[in-house]
Amino acid sequence: MIAAIADMSPPITTAAPAQRPLHLLLRSSWQTVNIGDIGHSPGVLTLLEKNFPDAIITLWPDLLDRGVRPMLQRRFPRLHIADGIIDPATGLPTTPALANAIAEADLLIHGSGPGIVALPHLEAWTRLTHGKPYGIYAITIDPLGAGPAHQAIPNEGDTIARQRALVAQLPPTHLAARERRVLESASFVFCRDTLTLDYLRAQNLRQPRLDFAPDGAFAIDLRDDTAAATFLRNHDLHDREFICVIPRLRFTPYHETHDTRPTPRDEGRALVSARHREADMEKLRALITRWVRATGLRVLVCSEMTYQVELGRDLIRQNLPEDVRDKVVWRPGYWLPDEACSTYARAHTVVSLDNHSPIFALAVGTPTIFVRQPSDTTKGQMWTDVGLGDWYFEITDTATTGHAIADRLLAIHHDRPAALARVKTIMSHVRTAQARSIATIKQTLPVSEKFERVQKPRLCAATTT
Hints:
The chain folds into two domains: 2-218 and 430-464, 3-Deoxy-D-manno-octulosonic-acid transferase, N-terminal domain (Rossmann fold), CATH 3.40.50; 224-425, Rossmann fold. It has 465 residues and is an alpha/beta fold. The protein is built from 17 helices and 15 strands. α15 (381-386) links the parallel β13 (368-372) and β14. It is globular, with a radius of gyration of 23 Å. It has helices at 35-51, 68-75, 96-104, 119-129, 160-168, 177-185, 194-202, 225-234, 254-257, 264-295, 308-316, 322-325, 337-346, 356-363, 381-386, 402-414, 416-449, and strands at residues 2-4, 23-28, 56-61, 80-81, 107-110, 134-139, 188-191, 210-212, 242-246, 298-301, 328-330, 349-352, 368-372, 392-394, 462-464.
């Protein structure tokens, strides 16, 4: 039982130590069933570590299970972690670590995600700290969405081009008042795709520091070379002589992942996934078949989310022609971003229906092909934004066949130097945008310096009984 102990005394004014280091609090780490959601945090942490080397950096996570906590601690040994939530009953932090982090931090940064994931916590931060600054870094706001939980028939989405046209028709009052208030009160707002950026601008958002910044995972530098090398050696996969293929359903079956009762929306989404599953997987099987027969090289079928492990076995490898199947390795079990990055760094190319494996691939210097499904939100715009070019496909386009994707893959194979040069160009654009975003964040720091000279709130932490 958690009991919140309220301290109603007023904040105490204390003299701050001279030259107190800047303290940054990152609100991130939304879930661990997706290596992409895991990868947001180490990416942004890397940017903060490199650009604010003397700062104290604290992570305020949702979840760090499945081995994520020790992975982060290995890479960021100076990282502080403040577990806990804001108690909805009291409005106060539930742990001393979180209470101290909120009291001591100079700037709160909301990390990459599919929206303002921690919106209530940004509101609580403002209330608890009497207005210390916060910013929002590299998010998508999908104004089309998939509907509320009670809606049985989900919005199946569309191509990015058609979604952009639909968003452009929305009235300037479309943005919800609560979201508008949080966005306008932020010291900066960075969108990871220009569809979100253009939408917010069309909503007449009063936010002078509104700009584009790539998904935080683009800055990831995690590695587990030992685990990757061991697996690849045990399965006869040699450097640059295998591709990685990542399958995906139209909608993630979160009710199965978390073993919860499905909502009407879950059930509707499952029907949509079932309707398109075979056609989508057939395109990947056709790609694999052509690749193996044309090159004699191998394939590693792997996952970005937990449910994709079995999907890769049951609908990809097991349904391949026998002569092709012998060249295809299925990776059993879920993995973490460090081993995935080390594996992608050794791969020839990464072909994925999910978004963050291509991000990891580019970050480690490997060519990638992304095949977007229409249900995968408006964040798909980010691939045009970073310059992926003809390595990007919309799966619903009639021209997007397995053979067409294979043509692009074989073009990478036949002129690998050109493909590697393109990867460098893409990442150069990414780093330029990252540098611009960091410069903007630094502009907010003089505002936060005043909190070294004024009172810090004494926050109530919960105790466990």
